[in-house]
Amino acid sequence: MTYRKFIIEKKYYQELSISERQILKILEEVVKEVGEIYRLQLKDGFYPKDITKQELEKANKNNPEILSPFTYVKRENGQLKAIPYHKLYEAKLKPLASKIEKAAAFCENRFFKNYLLARAKSLLDGSYREADITWLDVKNSKIDFSIGPFERYLDKILFIKRVFQGHVGIINKNLTIQAEKIKETLYSSAKLSYEKYHSTDIPKKGVNVFVEQTPVTAGYMSDVVFSGEHFPSDLEIMQQYGSRILIYESQLKYKFDKLHYPIFKILFERRFASKYSKELLYKATGWTILLYELGRQLHKFSSARERLKELYGPIDEANGFASGIQHAKHLVVKGLILQDELEAIMIIQITWMFVDWLLNLKQQKMFNYVAGDTILLNAYLKSGALREYGGISWPNFSKIFFEIEAVADQLVYLLQKGSFKEAERFIKKHTTLENFESLGRNLKLITPNI
Fold first, then answer.
1. What SS3 string covers the chain?
2. What does pTM read for this prediction?
3. pLDDT, tens digit, for every residue of 184-200?
């Protein structure tokens, strides 16, 4: 689905002023309409259908816009031509920019107003970088909003071209405060291991975390039902200005109810599964996506995307889960979560892998996630951390931690300085879907109609 609307509790709307409600209503209309641009991208793709990676790289030497994240490539008179998104979709983007400007006119928060105007401008002239920087500067706004070409996952050739999506959210103040506490604890502990784990200094520049109720989402994030994301994608901006992690509470709960919890009950042996309540597993799902996004911020390295090319996606995805769990032990030591809650996080992480696999069987839009997932799943099975007897039964959590540590070191090495050939060998050795097929055979009874 390229557009989703969620029912939000009245208390969140009641916390907004009259002007904020007007802004929210306008931005909901904007988000809904961006879904149409995403549908066009799914239809047209990013490149001519007969293109090869070698042809693109050769053409890019004379015209760097060919491999810009924000251009569509067409073949014209035998030559490749790059058309900027803001020109290609101009007829649809102009009305959206006008509506965003209209919303800005009601805005009393100067930071959010500046951001809305910058985002509207970016749709008309492609100044996405400036809009992202302005977004990172927003303070004390109860409303959050995004629209534009952000994620790269549908570019199966070079993992470069970005797809349109959008959301508007009402910030959940209480859960945001809790998420900030987890962030501060995790990053404070991680600083002690910066040299060992080659961590970047993005957290020092400022990683802001927000948990949001999302009345509407559209585009790619809606299609694959993202539970969370980090922005921006541009490493240079992150290193200079920090980053923004968003947890989409509405989509997270929807996905948990429709997929995570039903799959958990099928995937794990009944007696073992009975130890963990639905409430605990839902909380663990929120922690899992938060830890995953926080973990990815620790290992953003210059030139990693360029070195690893299309293999960057699965390696980065696997590292998000591995690093998140690896550092989660500090949360237990600091008393932010209990031992059984950490176990629930690891259980949900395993469940999450099968959710990705099942969604990809239907949509074929989650291939980077599944490739990353299988690296960890295969390591767990090979080491005996997971065993199957009437479903996955009694995971060896100590072995999972040991495997996480080993795999995380390999993944961080590849992200920091590994070559494309090294990444290729690693992916070939550690990724196979056979274990998903074997352990997930009963999951096909679940139709991921979300």
1. CCEEECCCCHHHHHCCCHHHHHHHHHHHHHHHHHHHHHHHHHHHCCCCCCCCHHHHHHHHHHCHHHHCCCEEEEEECCEEEEEEHHHHCHHHHHHHHHHHHHHHHCCCCHHHHHHHHHHHHHHHHCCHHHHHHHHHCCCCCCEEEEEEEEECCCCCCCCCCCEEEEEEEEECHHHHHHHHHHHHHHHHHHHCCHHHHCCCCHHHHCEEEEEEEEEEEEEHHHHCCCCEEEECCCHHHHHHHCEEEEEEHHHHHHHHHHHHHHHHHHHECHHHHCCCCHHHHHHHHHHHHHHHHHHHHCCCCCCHHHHHHHHHHHHHHHHHHHHHHHHHHHHHHCCCCCHHHHHHHHHHHHHHHHHHHHHHHHHCCCHHHHHHHHHHHHHHHHHCCCCECCCECCCCHHHHHHHHHHHHHHHHHHHHHCCHHHHHHHHHHHCCCHHHHHHCHHHHHCCCCC
2. 0.93
3. 888 887 765 545 555 67
